[in-house]
């Protein structure tokens, strides 16, 4: 009865999204600070923030993974499980405190297991408590034992099934020890020599630092402090996609309708445009400056993080913009979540904040210039949508801000692949890219014509009328493709540019107007252009 009452009390505590996120960040900060006080790591000065970034993602993945395991076996509401888990997160301090209390070296209770292969990982799982892994202290072992006794009790109260309780506890145990040996995964996939795990990471840092697109622009590959910082970046980059996938999985399990509404409002085709521009920046560095970026596991991870970061930026700006476009959307887009009532303004803010924070975290793991560029793009997005500026109201400034944001993400992709100086970016090409982006960005205003007209947003269709506006936008869109061969320095691209320029113009004049058709034509143009450049 006591256990049941305690569980009910935990699950009934009123913990809002903002309070829960704040509590999670504070507890992880306390764990990071305690390690710092105890002399962990060799990171110097303010570089210890990389440990905090690493721990935020690691504990986030563990919490979300455990939540899903418990949900799958108990069918309890994921949000109630997550609420209870966040409240109990203070248990993460106990391994260090126990180690201090029993006179044990705290370092033994706060490190990863570096394992040479899956076979050793299986043995690690089998004899963690009683076997030969003596480099783990009793602080961490006692914490894990306590956690799984509590988990087993929770599962039995919820299911009344001993088999389900044991199976859930076993799955959680395997998952936790997998997370406790996460760097080993990098070793398994990226080890091209006969080195052991520890030697591999040292060799990776001193010999492959320049060709691994993670943590660039922050440091040089010299000194053990730099090694510890870079390892934080590597692990954070590996954790980042896992964290996003688990967030989506928990949201889906918690509220399928809410999940569909949020995904449906993201406008994937526009997000794909940001992702493509960012990837184009990588290709610019590879082709223009002959940068070498081998197709290794870590570089594949970096591309996934890069694309995810750009897409999350887009998602954050969509939900942020929709809050301030409510009156416009009531007329032009009544099926969007806010005018339709499927999402509230606080929910929109929570989604925008979550996507924005994750986008900045992703940028932080890759490159300092990328972080600055994504941050600057968010400032532009705020000035574009929100009072007192709301710069989207002004003709030409509206598409220019979008074009500058695209340029920032093009540069973000470039710097992710290129490790050197800010001036490495070909600034002469930037102005031409801006002209192309400004010309190409106006078609988005056609669908919003009626709402923009009522709200006084000065777009081309509003200023010149819908008919003339579509004519001008069609010509600008076709003209933007005619500039691409000059940007790429490949005159052969005029063939698809002329063809798709005509098709774009026709599609923009067509009734009924379809924005998705415009995105499809742009995508086909990119594929055709890439095929020509590859084959010729």
Search tags:
536 residues; mainly alpha; 26 helices
What report would you give on this structure?
The mean pLDDT is 89. Helices cover 74% and strands 0% of the residues. Helix 3 (49-74) packs antiparallel against helix 8 and helix 7 (138-159) runs antiparallel to helix 8. The protein has 26 helices and no strands.
Secondary-structure blueprint:
Blueprint: H1 2-12, H2 17-37, H3 49-74, H4 78-87, H5 94-101, H6 118-126, H7 138-159, H8 162-179, H9 183-190, H10 197-207, H11 224-254, H12 256-265, H13 268-288, H14 297-324, H15 326-332, H16 337-340, H17 345-366, H18 368-385, H19 397-417, H20 427-440, H21 444-447, H22 449-455, H23 460-464, H24 466-488, H25 494-509, H26 515-535
Helix pairs in contact: 1-4, 2-3, 3-4, 3-8, 3-11, 5-7, 7-8, 11-12, 11-14, 11-17, 13-14, 13-19, 14-17, 14-18, 15-22, 17-18, 18-19, 19-20, 20-24, 24-25, 25-26
Going by helix content, strand content and strand pairing, the class is mainly alpha
Shape summary: globular
Secondary structure: number of strands = 0
Taking the alpha carbons of the first and last residues, their distance comes to 75 Å
Low-confidence stretches: none
Question: Helical percent range?
Answer: over 70%
Radius of gyration: 26 Å
| Nearest-integer average pLDDT | 89
* Residue share in β-strands: under 5%
Please report the number of helical segments: 26
* Series of H and E elements: HHHHHHHHHHHHHHHHHHHHHHHHHH
What characterizes the major β-sheet?
none
